[in-house]
Amino acid sequence: MSQLKMDNVSYCxxxxxxxxxxxxxxxxxxxxxxxxxxPSGSGKTTLLSLMAGLDYPTDGVISFDGTxxxxxxxxxxxxxxxxxxxxxxxxxxxxxxxxxxxxxxxxNGVHPKNAKxxxxxLLLQVGITREKFNRFPSNLSGGEQQRVAISRSLAxxxxxxxxxxxxxxxxxxxxxxxxxxLSALAHDEGYCVIIVTHDMDVTKKADKxxxxxxxxxxxxxxxxx
Length: 225
Fold this sequence. Notes:
Elements (H helix, E strand, L loop, with lengths): L1 E12 L4 E12 L3 E5 L6 H8 L7 E6 L2 E2 L5 H7 L1 E5 L10 H11 L4 H14 L16 H13 L5 E5 L7 H16 L4 E6 L10 E6 L2 E2 L8
Parallel strand pairs: 3-8, 3-9, 6-7, 7-8
Antiparallel strand pairs: 1-2, 1-4, 4-5, 9-10
Helix pairs in contact: 3-4, 3-5, 4-5, 5-6
């Protein structure tokens, strides 16, 4: 079943009258890992922002489970349906590992005790051991911080994960580990994982690869409409 769909979506910068995204039509489904390849400035990050409802398309329609984002409560949509994973991790520096993962759940009304139980499960799922639960992010390696960030993104229960250069700050070994986790989430747990990157190695785990140039998706991408 389709989870996220873009129909002839474009995004134009009003001040410069230039298009960051041009007439994109794609369908993203659960259980799949998608990689959007392209150089800096090609429109990849803008594409993610549109999917997350952080920007509004100039033209076209983005829908989630058949409903246009324009008809959804976007705050609720971002809390419950879409989760972001960033290159720079964006963990709260003054919260411990366990507190970082608990935060989105407690913010959504989950009792702190239940949030902690779920957070522990999520951290263990991505390979963060219990002795690191009470550490601050600065006391973790880059690969460990990205794992915590992935756990936090899963805490909301969202089934669509949007990852912006998730391996960009990691060495080769940690990059492989993170891609293994994201691949398992898609293929074993049924998530829809969408990654934007310029790293060719990331495509090795992809089910579908899109190539973006000057806001347009390449014609070689077979799953595009």
